[in-house]
Design goal:
Blueprint (H helix, E strand, L loop, with lengths): L2 H5 L8 H26 L10 H24 L15 H11 L17
Length: 118
């Protein structure tokens, strides 16, 4: 799967390994680096605690993250609309973490296509 297909398409499936290694880990590392940079450059708003660089980064990764989450739900043979469960405070985030990060996808082909091979 190429970069454009992975991050900019809701078609297909993404397994747990890909979700952790190609979405969660890079987003976490870049967010951490940008948070440190915001602190070093003094670009953090003291009232909200949000930094300019991390805010821009969040806007950049918003749509690709949603699309990858949709494909992860496809791997679990569920509709991409399940991403909306993340809008429920606290419980939604926990649900997404368990569902997308720890539960195995369906074996073999499902209605969203064949399983992804690494």
């Amino acid at each position: 799967m190429d970069f454009q297909q992975f991050y900019l398409s809701a078609q297909g499936r993404v397994n747990r390994k890909q979700w952790w290694l190609y979405l969660i880990l890079p987003v976490f590392v870049v967010s951490l680096i940008l948070s440190i940079a915001d602190g070093a450059f003094g670009t953090v708003d003291t009232e909200s605690g949000l930094g300019v660089l991390t805010g821009i980064w969040t806007l950049i990764i918003l749509i690709p993250s949603i699309l990858v989450h949709i494909k992860r739900f496809h791997d679990r043979d569920k509709s991409g609309w399940w991403v909306l469960i993340g809008l429920i405070p606290i419980i939604g985030g926990i649900w997404l973490l368990i569902e997308l990060g720890f539960l195995k996808g369906t074996e073999g082909p499902n209605r969203f296509g064949p399983p992804v091979t690494d």
